[in-house]
Amino acid sequence: MDKRRGWPAPGATLLKPIAFNLEEALQVENIYRPNLTSVHDYKTGEVTLSSRDGAVNNLRFLRIWLDLPHNAFFAAVSYLDMFLARMRVQEKYLTCLTLSCLYLAAETENCKIDVNKLLTVSHSRCTARDVLRMANIVKEKIKSAQGTMTTPSNFLDIYLDIFKYVTEQWEHIISKELTQIKENMLILLEVLLSDSTTAFFKSSVLALIVFQIEVDKIMSVGLPNKSVYFLGEVLQFLTTVREIQLKCKIKNGELKHFYMQITKIVKQYEIMQTWIILS
């Protein structure tokens, strides 16, 4: 971390390896979250941003249906976007490409996927041989990006680790529901990656804003009933968010712009979820 600024004192020694992880993730985040500017200039019959979003939503469905970890989804989206950033793809091949990316992502996460089951669940007309052949093509085209995968979920883990060590009474803010809170944040990240208006924001930005949105909810509910000590914890939280923002080199104007766009999509998602529950 920036020694001239430093981080809050608690857990400073333990924070060093986390700081290294953040530095490492920042160095490669653009590789795994490419801006698909080429998709704006597509020819008839080629994959559009809209069809790309549809494919990512299909990945969400398949992840849930096959009970895969969130990281398999994030990795699959990264493979898909990296491939689309390098290659022009015909719409007719998008389904096969999407399935092959999920197959590769499952391998990355050491999860076993039966290709035939994947085809059955997705109602795809392509064959297992098609998926495996496409997976090899994807590997070849994105081989320059092989190595440690860096996704929004990786940044979220780093931010959570940072707060664990710089906030003395972290549990006073998040109660004992960290598992559910993290699950909520991962779902929101999936929603954002499924929308091309926010999908290509830097992973560090996506994770930081989702983290801030979720904790803001917790604090807004708990703050009126907490002690003065809790107010100090809130201040420390806000200070640490600012430190992360500076370390990630996110300008205030950019953060405000990103925050407005992301919160708009998150609110739409929450309204839809409420409607589904009430129905």
Automatic annotation (TrEMBL):
This is Cyclin N-terminal domain-containing protein. SUPFAM superfamilies: Cyclin-like (SSF47954). Gene3D superfamilies: Cyclin-like. Residues 28-138 form the Cyclin N-terminal domain. Pfam families: Cyclin_N. It comes from the Eukaryota. InterPro entries: Cyclin (IPR039361), Cyclin-like_sf (IPR036915), Cyclin_N (IPR006671). It comes from Rhynchophorus ferrugineus.
